[in-house]
């Protein structure tokens, strides 16, 4: 059966000839008669390998898809000498008889495991070059990091061979790259050179290498992904929040048509103008530049799982499609919910669960689940709760290396060793479940936002403590709604990193959290209790701050905008007044 691939690269268009394949190899045998390697092929069975999968077994965690046949060649963390690796460069070389052939071209499948994307550093590369009859080496296809300097960037085609990826991104599904080969002769030597793929998330796989006679560049389409998940809303609301993908094309002979199927709508702009009608991108000189397309689930759907797709077509190009999936949740009933979340320094991470019901809850039906870098709920991060949670009480689940003050708020069995749902970073989701039903969530398990998700106007899930507002009485299945876009519509107060003052109880008033409106500004004061420095956020201009003891005697006075030094105060309760020419506010602090 013919396989359909997203053909994505054509750098030179030639006069049309009748194409024929003069060489083809797909790694279905040990390669002894087809290629040589600069070092013996190796694999540690997991993360470190430079091998055809016909010759060695690599870990099942390696996630490329859509290979031709059963096998392919893959490289990752190639410098592990203890497993058989070596320092750079590593090469894979093919020697091909081209006697009597002309107008040559290469087509090759490439893929990259998306786990942990983006991950290539500026010095990582895979270069495909060639020589004919021992002549000068010529660049054919280069794959580089998009970063000129730095780490953890997207892996892309380097269209101008300058060492920086500026073209199509390499996806987890095998993609077909194509390029013409200049010159004729007897022997073509194709060399694939791997440089600096030295870490567990730096990889590339290749398959189905073909050399054509009478090569003519085909109309090509690029999509940045072949699937998008995580669309959701609660029944009666909607549409879902937007997600995006990109489309581009080269050597086109007609327009690109982008057509959503049932239950989804698309737009070329964010926010407005969504439609279920086709979008048309017209080429200029045969090309359509990388174009962002926004997609969302339409409103008005009934509760259940939703699956659909977007098709992308152009005359003469292989059709591409993007699978879409999401969930419309039933209106939830009141249940336990996450009342506090901390992503602090080192292992100072915890979630607090609150029982808002009028009766005790048997926790044996409940669990916490965690994700890692957008790869969905991870089995190793499932944790079943136990015991009973009384009405109005909280439960804290934390890492077993958290600060002693956090550990002191937990009970036996809820201080978890690695790996667990509370071993998260700011870009890892955590969900609270009742049986198999999600009842509250922070983040999106099926997407990687980079370092964190935004919360409110300026908050984040990274290096912050989130405290649920007193107005929230149940969980929220839709993270984008829970997080909000302003301090007013967010369900969370966002406090500085390593603020644990409010852990162990819920709810808390805005006054207790030292959050208040001042001159139309949302002002946060922290920490409270305070030891040396009282910090202010939200002030846009200096105010006069005066500290009084509880007898009304002034102890300190200073003009502040960011912080007030209270180290000279004795331990005890104080009143603080902040004042400008239009407004004044008094609140209490506890000096430790």
Describe the structure.
The protein is mainly beta and 592 residues long. It folds into four domains: 6-218, Sandwich (Jelly Rolls); 223-328, Immunoglobulins (Immunoglobulin-like, Sandwich), CATH 2.60.40; 337-496, Sandwich (Immunoglobulin-like), CATH 2.60.40.1260; 515-591, Sandwich (Immunoglobulin-like), CATH 2.60.40. Helix content is 2%, strand content 43%. It contains two helices and 45 strands. The strands form ten sheets. Strands 1, 2, 4, 5, 6, 8, 12 and 14 form an eight-stranded mixed sheet that branches.
The CATH topology label of the largest domain is Jelly Rolls
The helical percent reads: under 10%
Total number of domains: 4
Largest sheet, in brief, is: 8 strands, mixed
Any idea what the CATH superfamily of the largest domain is called?
Galactose-binding domain-like
CATH class of the largest domain: Mainly Beta
What's a quick, concise take on this entry?
With 592 residues, the protein is mainly beta.
Secondary structure layout:
Layout: E1 6-10, E2 20-25, E3 35-37, E4 42-43, E5 49-52, E6 73-76, E7 90-97, E8 104-111, E9 125-132, E10 138-145, E11 155-157, E12 175-181, E13 187-195, E14 203-213, E15 220-223, E16 227-234, E17 243-250, E18 256-260, E19 264-267, E20 279-281, E21 288-297, E22 304-313, E23 320-329, E24 337-343, E25 349-354, E26 361-362, E27 366-370, E28 383-384, E29 388-389, E30 394-399, H1 404-407, E31 415-416, E32 430-434, E33 437-442, E34 454-455, E35 459-460, E36 464-468, H2 479-483, E37 492-496, E38 515-518, E39 521-526, E40 533-537, E41 543-549, E42 554-560, E43 563-565, E44 572-579, E45 584-591
């Amino acid at each position: 059966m013919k396989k359909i691939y997203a053909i994505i690269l054509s750098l030179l268009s030639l006069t049309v000839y009748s194409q024929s394949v003069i060489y083809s190899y797909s790694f279905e045998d040990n390669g002894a008669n087809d290629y040589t390697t600069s070092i013996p092929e190796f694999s540690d069975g997991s993360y470190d390998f430079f091998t055809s999968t016909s010759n060695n077994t690599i870990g099942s965690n390696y996630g490329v898809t859509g290979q031709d046949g059963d096998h392919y060649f893959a490289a990752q963390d190639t410098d592990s000498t203890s497993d058989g690796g070596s320092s750079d460069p590593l090469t894979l070389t093919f020697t091909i008889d081209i006697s009597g052939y002309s107008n040559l071209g290469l087509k090759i499948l490439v893929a990259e495991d998306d786990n942990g994307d983006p991950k290539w550093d500026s010095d990582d590369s895979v270069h495909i070059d060639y020589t004919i009859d021992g002549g000068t080496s010529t660049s054919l296809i280069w794959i580089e990091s998009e970063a000129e300097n730095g780490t953890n960037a997207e892996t892309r085609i380097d269209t101008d061979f300058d060492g920086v990826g500026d073209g199509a991104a390499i996806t987890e599904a095998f993609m077909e790259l194509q390029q013409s080969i200049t010159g004729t002769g007897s022997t073509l030597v194709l060399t694939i050179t791997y440089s600096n793929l030295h870490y567990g998330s730096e990889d590339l796989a290749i398959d189905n290498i073909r050399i054509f006679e009478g090569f003519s560049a085909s109309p090509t389409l690029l999509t940045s992904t072949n699937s998008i998940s995580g669309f959701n809303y609660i029944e009666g609301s909607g549409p879902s929040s937007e997600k995006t993908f990109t489309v581009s094309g080269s050597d086109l002979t007609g327009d690109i048509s982008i057509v959503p199927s049932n239950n989804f709508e698309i737009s070329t702009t964010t926010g407005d103008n969504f439609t279920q009608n086709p979008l048309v991108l017209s080429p200029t000189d045969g090309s359509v530049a990388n174009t962002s397309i926004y997609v969302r689930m339409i409103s008005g759907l009934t509760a259940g799982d939703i699956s659909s797709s977007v098709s992308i077509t152009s005359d003469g190009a292989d059709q591409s499609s993007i699978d879409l999936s999401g969930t419309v949740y039933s209106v939830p009933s009141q249940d336990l919910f996450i009342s506090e979340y901390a992503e602090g320094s080192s292992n100072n991470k915890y979630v607090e669960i609150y029982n808002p019901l009028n009766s005790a809850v048997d926790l044996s039906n409940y669990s916490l689940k965690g994700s890692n870098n957008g790869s969905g709920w991870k089995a190793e991060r499932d944790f079943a709760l136990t015991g009973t949670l009384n009405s109005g009480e909280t439960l804290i689940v934390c890492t077993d290396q958290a600060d002693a003050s956090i550990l002191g708020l937990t009970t036996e069995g809820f201080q978890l060793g690695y790996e667990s749902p509370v071993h998260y970073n700011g870009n890892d989701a955590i969900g609270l479940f009742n049986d198999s039903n999600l009842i509250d969530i922070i983040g999106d398990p099926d997407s990687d936002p980079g370092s964190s998700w935004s919360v409110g106007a300026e908050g984040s899930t990274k290096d912050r403590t989130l405290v649920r507002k007193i107005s929230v009485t149940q969980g929220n299945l839709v993270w984008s709604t829970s997080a909000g876009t302003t301090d007013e519509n967010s369900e969370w107060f966002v406090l500085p990193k390593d603020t644990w003052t409010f852990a162990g109880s819920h709810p808390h008033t805005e006054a207790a959290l030292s959050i208040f409106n001042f001159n139309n500004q949302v002002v946060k004061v922290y920490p409270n209790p305070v030891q040396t420095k009282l910090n202010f956020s939200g002030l846009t201009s200096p105010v006069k701050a005066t500290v009084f003891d509880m007898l009304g005697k002034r102890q300190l006075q200073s003009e502040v905008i960011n912080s007030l030094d209270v180290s000279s105060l004795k331990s005890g309760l104080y009143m603080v007044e902040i004042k400008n020419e239009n407004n004044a506010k008094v609140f209490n602090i506890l000096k430790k």
